[in-house]
Amino acid sequence: MFYRDERLALFIDGSNLYAAAKSLGFDIDYKLLRQEFMRRGRLLRAFYYTALLENDDYSPIRPLVDWLNYNGFTMVTKPAREYTDSMGRRKVKGNMDIELAVDAMELAPHVDHIVLFSGDGDFRPLIESIQRKGVRVSVVSTIRSQPPMISDELRRQADNFIELQELKDVIGRPPRENFDPATPETAE
């Protein structure tokens, strides 16, 4: 579903992709991910979206963010907000949907194909709008987890659905113990 001469852009919803890969029992090797999509077309941009806990002395996702920033990814971050819920549990909120949607709309006139790494159904209207601009949209997520990590509406709207499990041998690596880069962004 890819053409070698088409201009590609990747939009990675960090927490969503992490959760999908974790549910399938592997971690993403972002160097391999970038190389794979460079082979599939002319990769113009690879965006990675995540919220960061700024008040922590050490964030488990900071090394990943730094590595991505130095290795061809455009990092889009914002401070996560920490709060205590009604049950007294510490929660973190850091939704990056608006930032991703704005960037995708701005870049759409300059690309032929957008690849969205997310299963979030909130992106369905975004995909529909981008398609009206003549841009093809592929979505990478999984239906093989319980429950599926992609909304049915998003999958139906996309021009192409790429099952993350089928990319495991190309972009995956065994999971690391005690590493959870989604910690600051899990509650939305």
Automatic annotation (TrEMBL):
| Top-level taxonomic group | Bacteria
Q: Which GO terms describe its molecular function?
A: RNA nuclease activity
Question: Locate the NYN domain: which residues?
Answer: 7-164
Q: What name is this protein filed under?
A: NYN domain-containing protein
